[in-house]
Design goal:
By secondary structure, this protein is an alpha/beta fold. The protein has helices at residues 21-31, 53-56, 59-63, 71-74, 97-106, 108-111, 118-133, 136-154, 174-188, 217-234, 239-243, and strands at 3-7, 34-38, 77-81, 91-94, 167-170, 193-195, 206-209. It has a 4-stranded mixed sheet, with helices on one face. It has a 3-stranded antiparallel sheet with strand order 5-7-6, with helices on one face. The model has no long low-confidence stretch (mean pLDDT 88).
């Protein structure tokens, strides 16, 4: 048996990049493989009903309720979490009836696991139903992410380009990464997760910033001001130094914005009206 697997947001906690799900399904169909998709970091945040990246890739069809032959239909197994985007506990796995029956019968981790308590399941059901019918929060989250990324770039802070809601801010030194996180918490009351080895390669240490829909413009200003002061205090590299870090002067891996992909959420899906062209500019 062959298996082709993907994460809706590949290495989400590190890079925030998005896997080529449709292309993986094509390969699986060609070679007779089973497809497995982990949407843990995407459910609640993507798709017209919050079902994840696979739903989002056929946004209009799912929004209209006519997702025939969609990418979700092509994936054999999809897993997700009831924490993170849904804010409760636990997780789920979806697949064919025979596959789910096999898990019930043969999975030792499932067989010897106590069922979640009813209040937890009630909270999960309420969260799923709310996200299914109310896309405003995840839309505002994406608007806030765009605003934060743009503000950080304006100050030449090294935001690694990606398509998702994760904001990877490069540091490049494990000690300084931890120190930067401590300064943000102790001096500015901001908790940011430092990502050090072994989660990333030596020299690729970073801060992982995750804006939410509830963060106001004032919160964003406070974050950006705190990061600028922290970068100045520690003498951390700015974006140009990261972009031209290769020995031959070429753009370092991940920094070539000429090949950067567009965000998963489009302007149209977020109801963002682009500014009019200024003929005098």
């Amino acid at each position: 048996m062959h298996r082709a697997s993907s994460d809706g947001s590949v290495s989400d906690r590190i890079l925030g990049t998005v896997g080529p799900i449709a292309e993986i399904c094509d390969l699986a169909q060609r070679y007779g493989a089973i497809t497995f998709l982990d949407e843990v970091h995407a459910v609640g945040l993507y798709g017209p009903h919050g079902a994840g990246i696979a739903e989002h890739l056929d946004f209009e069809a799912h929004a209209l309720g006519s997702p025939a032959d969609s990418i979700m239909d092509r994936v054999d197994i999809i897993t997700g979490a009831l924490g993170k985007g849904f804010g409760t506990m636990g997780g789920y796995v979806t697949g064919s009836l025979s596959f789910i029956d096999m898990i019930r019968s043969l999975s030792s981790g499932f067989i010897f696991t106590t069922a979640p308590p009813p209040p937890t399941m009630a909270g999960a059901q309420a969260a799923i139903e709310f996200q299914r019918d109310n896309p405003q929060d995840r839309m505002q989250l994406q608007r806030n992410v765009r605003a934060v990324k743009e503000r950080l770039r304006e100050h030449a802070l090294p935001v690694l380009p990606n398509q998702s809601h994760i904001v990877p801010l490069m540091v490049g030194d494990s000690d300084k990464c931890k120190t930067a996180a401590d300064i943000l918490f102790d001096s500015f009351g901001i908790y940011v997760q430092p990502i050090n080895t072994p989660s990333v390669k030596v020299g690729q240490e970073r801060l992982r910033i995750s804006p939410t829909a509830a963060h106001t413009a004032a919160h964003q200003d406070h974050l950006v001001d705190a990061l600028v002061q922290t970068w100045d205090q520690l003498g951390l590299k700015r974006i140009d130094e990261w972009r031209k870090g290769a020995p031959d002067g070429a753009a370092s891996e991940g920094w070539d914005e000429t090949v950067a992909l567009a965000p998963v959420w489009t302007d149209e899906q977020l109801n963002i009206v682009p500014p009019p062209n200024n003929p005098e500019a």
